[in-house]
Hints:
Bound molecules: S-adenosylmethionine
Oligomer: single chain
Amino acid sequence: xxxxxxxxxxxxxxxxxxxxxxxxxxxxxxxxxxxxxxxxxxxxxxxxxxxxxxxxxxxxxxxxxxxxxxxxxxxxxxxxxxxxxxxxxxxxxxxxxxxxxxxxxxxxxxxxxxxxxxxxxxxxxxxxxxxxxxxxxxxxxxxxxxxxxxxxxxxxxxxxxxxxxxxxxxxxxxxxxxxxxxxxxxxxxxxxxxxxxxxxxxxxxxxxxxxxxxxxxxxxxxxxxxxxxxxxxxxxxxxxxxxxxxxxx
Length: 249
Ligand code: SAM
């Protein structure tokens, strides 16, 4: 039926595409791709010959109106990104909100997402988590962001580029402490899939010493802030105590 379909694609292992994803990509009139050349390889691998159009951060708002035109002509459209779930640190937000505003259906398909896949095998608490996307590229911005998150009790999930992994781990040690439990998931679903798990300072050392750990695609996860594990005294109580003691002679 006439709708915008949000279709996740594999994050490495081509076997992770779903039967329904292939069906939808074959049936729609148009596939909006982040990069038509990149997705062209994936689509031809599955024998999908549907017409493609580019939708990236720079043309998304204009392209959205054009896609709404297609929907109004009765043509179904699919959105894919280079890898994983569209809109998750990828383009699509403006398109989806504009298509909904224009009154058309948006139909999501479930599928690969690096953050959720990495979290599921990390061993970190998964009952509550905060997906934070990419950390800022500049040190000041990165430290500010991490300081803001330092007392968040939820598991923190970051996307990371191999060029910045050492800098990001250094900032994590500085802002969250060298003992903060970190899990680094690299090349998930691919040949060199690796999970490193341990205190932040230890992971930093391992990654610094081994250039192989600075390659490929990375999800970085941090255990949430633990409220005075050792003493069982809530932070609020400690702060009140500090305030009171300042008033004492
Ligand atoms: N939309 C994608 C998703 O659903 O996961 C994420 C796109 S974002 C531009 C790319 C980032 O996702 C990479 O820099 C990396 O942090 C993470 N990523 C993608 N594939 C991965 C993989 N196979 N293993 C680990 N991290 C991956």
